Amino acid sequence: MAAPMLRWGCRGRRWALACVDGGSCHRRGAPTGSTSNRIRGQSSVAQQPLHTAQKPRKGEHKWAAVVGLEIHAQISSNSKLFSGSQVRFSAPPNSLVSFFDASLPGTLPVLNRRCVEAAVMTGLALNCHINKKSLFDRKHYFYADLPAGYQITQHRLPIAVNGSLTYGISAGKECGQVIPKMVRVKQIQLEQDSGKSLHDDLRSQTLIDLNRAEGQLRVDANISVHHPGEPLGVRTEVKNLNSIRFLAKAIDYEIQRQISELENGGEILNETRSFHEKLGCTVSMRDKEAKQDYRFMPEPNLPPLLLYDATSLPTGADPQQVINIDQIRETLPELPSVTRERLVQQYGMLPEHSFTLLNEVGLLEFFQNVMKETRAEPKKVTSWVLNIFLGYLKQENLAVSESPVTPSALAELLDLLDSRTISSSAAKQVFEELWKREGKTPGQIVSEKQLELMQDRGALEQFCYSVMKDHPQVVMDVKKGNPRAINKLIGLVRKATLNRADPAVIKEILEKQLSS
Amino acid sequence: MLKGYVPPYNATVVQKLLDQGALLMGKTNLDEFAMGSGSTDGVFGPVKNPWSYSKQYREKRKQNPHSESGDSDWLITGGSSGGSAAAVSAFTCYAALGSDTGGSTRNPAAHCGLVGFKPSYGLVSRHGLIPLVNSMDVPGILTRYVDDAAIVLGVLAGHDPKDSTTVPINKPLVLSSLEDVSKLCIGIPKEYLVPELSSEIQCLWSRAADLFESEGAKVIEVSLPHTSYSIVCYHVLCTSEVASNMARFDGLQYGHRCDIDVSTEAMYAATRREGFNDVVRGRILSGNFFLLKENYENYFVKAQKVRRLIANDFVNAFNSGVDVLLTPTTLSEAVPYLEFIKEDNRTRSAQDDIFTQAVNMAGLPAVNIPIALSNQGLPIGLQFIGRAFCDQQLLTVAKWFEKQVQFPVIQLQELVDNCSAILENEKLASVSLKQ
């Protein structure tokens, strides 16, 4: 069993464990029986950073909540962290179990290179310091889904430490402002996951599947509250949250629960809780003892893991036998923060736009493809992609890959707009038509619906003149200084021209005619 | 605990031998989970030392007016790999594999008059060796002659991808004959002269040193100052690793499982209580105690530090020009079973491992070479300890010594003849050395 980094379940799985410890230095609560209820993913996940949120309440004192997350993510690799057995989704139970995974006596762990590389990549991506020497330990506890009676993890000296992750939170829907924040990543460690337990209450038995590869994310949240300036409060641990939504709900609930408890004179127990999805609340788990002693011991079958960089690489070293951090760094794709910065610099977009572009799968690529094919200004493209295009997607709950409008189509449309062939409102109409998947190009839609803007300025001037003539009262209002009156005139001209005139040009002509 | 368990794979050492055409004659008895120094605490019962039935021993016993008749005075083989030693000693096979964590191969080799070889840690794969102490275990080799041990080692040594603690060897093992020992330096650790050492063995040890000196080798006294701490240090580290390694035996995937199905915890507890003997359970409890958070620093980490000091003692000795160390292997010759069981396993292990276990802590190669028979007609052996990964040099010196001392072959012919006579009369086809 072996899974790099983030904690993974499954025996022999590769798990990488990202452990982020929030402000408190308390020992983790013991995993009680119910923790193995869930599938533990394999993969390594980076350490969670510590996040401090202000949650003031109507009360005399302000409260501050401290949250630490322990993220278990499965590493994407072909075989498990410590054994050669394969990783495959939805395989029949116990069909991917090697002798080592079943903890047959005499079997030994062998470290999976790919998992180490993945852990290093994750560490680099999260600005961590990569430990050139890291150690493996055994963490002992008895549970049916842990055949060896211990889990191999990195307790003393993990592979990466002290990283950070910048992210943005929106300040409010209306203003659309994104505030950049940073969260600390305490450490990233490689760890193997345990098996999966399926409890059969009917027959009072538990079935164990030692495959363990489900690819799910699993997060444990540590939460405490305190008054700013005072020491940190007692923390509780909410385990096995496997969606971002539930994670947020659980944290919010737990913060409020703790605040209420304390404000009513109660106290918070250092305990493990689980999140009840249907009720939306956290409940205390069966706690035999608050703290379990894992009897950590160095893993004697795995020598220290040594990593090298360009400066420390021994000469003549076989590249198959060593891992070069610098080499891995070069293979990293452009990180999101770098991409966002580049977008802001290159296209002059607002930071919050760059966040939105990156937060939607495939949206950045879509945007860049449109940019390639259109003459329109980046700001225009940004606006269309983020507001109109994204809006339509969200309305129908579609992914970018499912969009009926291709980047080429949008590019063509924006060209028509840019060349002032059509007006802005006409463009929106065209877009709506495109969305209907009738296979027509923007050009075709425009000619079918006769949406071209009037190019004949003379004719337009004529229209303006007649409208003004027909509505002397409105003209009077304009001359009196009523700012809204001109809009009425514009509206009338638009109507007269069957919306085929550019309102900006109409306005310009009207103003000219009025002033003369 | 492993009742009914048939391993679905071969250990690397077994596979390597099979690949070279070896025939597996059978599996031998031992102390349960290799915990013990007498091979008396196994599920299949104690192992009897073939020398109990040798002409050499029997003749001496006839001279002893206090000897009892019958089979009640049979001797132990030593342990924990006593079954393997008995098998080789009784000529049932060419060689046998054992394990050596604190002396479990060398000890029975000494009591059974065999070459008991412990390779350097990391030279031979542990894949398939049920672990006792992962950081000290090695597969051990038992043969009648050094050449045989060298042949077996030649097959087994080398890096195994399945065992991350093995290292590659750069050249194959070939044992050459040593004619001239004048360039050799033999070290005699003074701390190994303990009061409990039998005078016979002490005398033989001294004679061996004299032998080397008379042939031109340099023989010097060295000091291994932390020797007196090694038993305790070994005990802490051994029980801790044992507690960890035994955690997997819960009856769930393989082996014995009890009948209780009230809850998983109850099932685990009962299975482990039924499946382990007292010795094993005792070590698990001790080990878990040392690994508790509040004890870890004071016991486990301290013991690791002491272990480093002990290993450094050897390094210093070798760095002072010594090629090979010469020590006793055991405190005395093999004792009768009835006498051995008067003390408990733990006490016996602590006593009997005294010359052998520091070697495991330092990961060095060592070998027992039988030197002579005692006044009782029983084998006595001496131990040679070499530098890490200098197994070839160690065996070369051992082979020279073996040639010099000409240890006698065990005489079991009378026994075999007696058996044949009895069996002929009963028209049985097989010959057995059992009495």
TrEMBL record, chain A:
<keyword id="KW-0067">ATP-binding</keyword>
<keyword id="KW-0547">Nucleotide-binding</keyword>
<comment type="similarity">
    <text>Belongs to the GatB/GatE family. GatB subfamily.</text>
</comment>
<dbReference type="GO" id="GO:0005524">
    <property type="term" value="F:ATP binding"/>
</dbReference>
<keyword id="KW-0436">Ligase</keyword>
<dbReference type="InterPro" id="IPR014746">
    <property type="entry name" value="Gln_synth/guanido_kin_cat_dom"/>
</dbReference>
<dbReference type="Pfam" id="PF02637">
    <property type="entry name" value="GatB_Yqey"/>
</dbReference>
<dbReference type="InterPro" id="IPR018027">
    <property type="entry name" value="Asn/Gln_amidotransferase"/>
</dbReference>
<keyword id="KW-0648">Protein biosynthesis</keyword>
<protein>
    <recommendedName>
        <fullName>Glutamyl-tRNA(Gln) amidotransferase subunit B, mitochondrial</fullName>
        <ecNumber>6.3.5.-</ecNumber>
    </recommendedName>
</protein>
<dbReference type="InterPro" id="IPR003789">
    <property type="entry name" value="Asn/Gln_tRNA_amidoTrase-B-like"/>
</dbReference>
<dbReference type="InterPro" id="IPR017959">
    <property type="entry name" value="Asn/Gln-tRNA_amidoTrfase_suB/E"/>
</dbReference>
<dbReference type="GO" id="GO:0005739">
    <property type="term" value="C:mitochondrion"/>
</dbReference>
<dbReference type="Pfam" id="PF02934">
    <property type="entry name" value="GatB_N"/>
</dbReference>
<dbReference type="GO" id="GO:0032543">
    <property type="term" value="P:mitochondrial translation"/>
</dbReference>
<dbReference type="InterPro" id="IPR004413">
    <property type="entry name" value="GatB"/>
</dbReference>
<dbReference type="InterPro" id="IPR023168">
    <property type="entry name" value="GatB_Yqey_C_2"/>
</dbReference>
<keyword id="KW-0809">Transit peptide</keyword>
<dbReference type="GO" id="GO:0070681">
    <property type="term" value="P:glutaminyl-tRNAGln biosynthesis via transamidation"/>
</dbReference>
<dbReference type="GO" id="GO:0030956">
    <property type="term" value="C:glutamyl-tRNA(Gln) amidotransferase complex"/>
</dbReference>
<comment type="function">
    <text>Allows the formation of correctly charged Gln-tRNA(Gln) through the transamidation of misacylated Glu-tRNA(Gln) in the mitochondria. The reaction takes place in the presence of glutamine and ATP through an activated gamma-phospho-Glu-tRNA(Gln).</text>
</comment>
<keyword id="KW-0496">Mitochondrion</keyword>
<dbReference type="GO" id="GO:0050567">
    <property type="term" value="F:glutaminyl-tRNA synthase (glutamine-hydrolyzing) activity"/>
</dbReference>
<feature type="domain" description="Asn/Gln amidotransferase">
    <location>
        <begin position="365"/>
        <end position="514"/>
    </location>
</feature>
<dbReference type="GO" id="GO:0050566">
    <property type="term" value="F:asparaginyl-tRNA synthase (glutamine-hydrolyzing) activity"/>
</dbReference>
<comment type="subunit">
    <text>Subunit of the heterotrimeric GatCAB amidotransferase (AdT) complex, composed of A (QRSL1), B (GATB) and C (GATC) subunits.</text>
</comment>
<dbReference type="InterPro" id="IPR006075">
    <property type="entry name" value="Asn/Gln-tRNA_Trfase_suB/E_cat"/>
</dbReference>
